[in-house]
Amino acid sequence: MVYFGPGVHDLTNRSVGDNKTIYIAGGAYIRGAMDADEKPVQIGLSDMLLPTFKLSGKNISIRGSPLCQHE
User: What Gene3D superfamilies has UniProt attached to this entry (predicted)?
Assistant: First the structure.
């Protein structure tokens, strides 16, 4: 289980594998952040940054009452 309790969580590259539950508690605020050392990767014809939160497995569930906001 990946648990985010109440408070602010700044995430950099985080992968979630097979058979995991992500629980976001009430009052948790998750922000995507870039590492100072993060370098762009070449994908196709353009440079892109790695995803902050990557769901790269099977049987992953997200629990809690998350709200999404894009700034």
Answer: Single-stranded right-handed beta-helix, Pectin lyase-like
